[in-house]
Automatic annotation (TrEMBL):
<feature type="compositionally biased region" description="Basic and acidic residues">
    <location>
        <begin position="120"/>
        <end position="132"/>
    </location>
</feature>
<feature type="region of interest" description="Disordered">
    <location>
        <begin position="101"/>
        <end position="132"/>
    </location>
</feature>
<protein>
    <submittedName>
        <fullName>Uncharacterized protein</fullName>
    </submittedName>
</protein>
Length: 132
């Protein structure tokens, strides 16, 4: 499992992109035990931006007891998740090349909350299935 990609994915699912450390740790534990699919997915996403460093590149800020994804972090995550026409990128761009000049509009909070609830439900179901 790629820690940095997982942090970005968790933070983007929270309202305003902010989560306290307790919630981050809980969500990280759920995803870490959810099986090989998550580890493979984060590894593939991380391969799209090989020089990823969420703190030094300003993708995540540390704020009063938690972490918050920045607009730049959202843009990099969106790039990592975008599908390419070609099966493999010829050369992965640096983080600076990925971030557009204008930040795209943010998704509506209700959509993020709904996706977050769905992901948590799926993670619980996988955990139950793996425990059996």
């Amino acid at each position: 499992m790629n820690f940095q990609v997982t942090v970005l994915k968790i933070l983007v699912s929270y309202p305003d992109g902010f989560a306290v450390m307790e919630d981050l740790k809980r969500d990280m534990a759920i995803l870490a035990t959810s099986g090989r699919d998550w580890a493979d997915r984060t590894r593939r996403l991380a391969a799209r931006v090989p020089d990823l460093d969420i703190f030094s590149q300003g993708l995540v800020d540390r704020e009063s007891g938690g972490w918050k994804i920045t607009a730049k972090g959202r843009a990099v995550l969106e790039f990592m998740e975008s599908r390419l026409a070609a099966p493999e990128p010829i050369q992965a761009p640096s983080v600076e090349e990925v971030v557009p000049a204008a930040v795209p509009p943010l998704r509506q909070p209700a959509d993020r909350a709904m996706r977050r609830r769905e992901r948590r439900r799926e993670a619980r179901e996988r955990a139950r299935a793996n425990a059996s």
